[in-house]
Design brief:
It holds the Pfam family AP_endonuc_2. It comes from Mucisphaera calidilacus. The chain is an alpha/beta fold and 278 residues long. 40% of the residues lie in helices and 16% in strands. It is built from 9 helices and 10 strands. It has an 8-stranded parallel barrel, surrounded by 4 helices. Strands 8-9 form a two-stranded antiparallel sheet. Strand 1, helix 1 and strand 2 form a beta-alpha-beta unit. Helix 3 runs parallel beside helix 4 and helix 7 runs parallel beside helix 8.
């Protein structure tokens, strides 16, 4: 497995303003083998990048020794694909269609997609669950042809969005499309906030998992403040790694540590190295 760090973990990463060449250098210097890029409506990687702008960024990526294969999107928090407002849903499709196109132009292999928000501590939306699932299905249906054309996997993440609380439900949703470009971006740390056991989800989702995020969480806190440095929380790391190996997973393991702080990259690289050796 390949140890990676999220662009959002870098200084000014959440603002999407950290120059890519610097981000690549800093990730490598900290000891990572991979960097996950992130896309936003504005900033370094945007859905409306021109082909010329993509070529410049791709040259920087190819000039680095790092593995750069994934693109994470948080745009669903601002433009909810399951919103009651049809214009918001349409904007979400527009933005993520652009993100898929840009991912393909950059030579990336996967886009992380939050398929919709029902209820969340970081969103004001409150959407009826059956409406949200129907709209998430419509969004994925519209994005899959774009993903196929771009040569990029569209990967649904389990995140604090109030949608798909069960691995069985997520399996059913993904399997309902029977499309080779659709899969799961599995976030192990996010599950602890739902009082669920990450290794069990891995065993159930199995080969539907195409990429993996890791973070740690203190269940005694139970809120967003419970996210913490790797190895400082309650993640069952040895079981989680064993479960990933059992399904044959060998791709990137990206630490998504937010927000940036002094020494974060170095602490995370050291901890992730220990986790991957379990």
């Amino acid at each position: 497995m390949i140890a990676g760090i999220s662009y959002w973990s870098l200084k000014q990463g959440l603002e999407n303003t950290h120059p890519l060449d610097q981000a690549l250098a800093e990730a490598q210097e900290a000891g990572f083998s991979a960097l996950e890029l992130c896309v936003g409506p504005e900033g370094v990687v945007r859905p409306d990048l021109t082909d010329a702008e993509c070529r410049v960024l791709r040259q920087q990526i190819e000039g680095s020794s790092l593995t750069v294969e994934t693109l994470a999107s948080g745009m669903s928090w601002g433009f909810n694909p399951t919103s009651d407002d049809a214009s918001v849903r349409e904007k979400a499709i527009e933005l993520h269609s652009g993100a898929l196109r840009v991912a393909g132009a950059l030579g990336l292999k996967a886009l992380l997609f939050v398929p919709g928000v029902v209820k969340s501590p970081i969103s004001p939306d409150l959407i009826r669950y059956d409406h949200a699932v129907e709209r998430a299905r419509e969004a994925v249906s519209r994005l899959l042809p774009v993903a196929e054309e771009a040569g990029v996997d569209l990967l649904i993440e389990n995140v604090w969005n109030g949608l798909f609380y069960s691995p069985l439900e997520l399996c059913s949703f993904v399997d309902g499309f029977d499309h080779p470009r659709l899969g799961v971006y599995f976030d192990a740390g996010n599950l602890l906030g739902y009082h669920q056991h990450p290794p069990h989800w891995i065993e159930v989702l199995a080969q539907r998992i195409r990429r993996v995020h890791v973070k740690d969480f203190k269940q005694s806190v139970g809120s967003l403040d419970g996210f913490c440095d790797l190895l400082d929380g309650d993640m069952p790391w040895a079981e989680t790694m064993a479960a990933l190996r059992a399904i044959g997973y060998s791709q990137t393991i990206v630490a998504e540590m937010i927000p940036h702080s002094d020494g974060l990259l170095e602490r995370t690289a050291s901890a992730l190295s220990r986790i991957l050796s379990m």
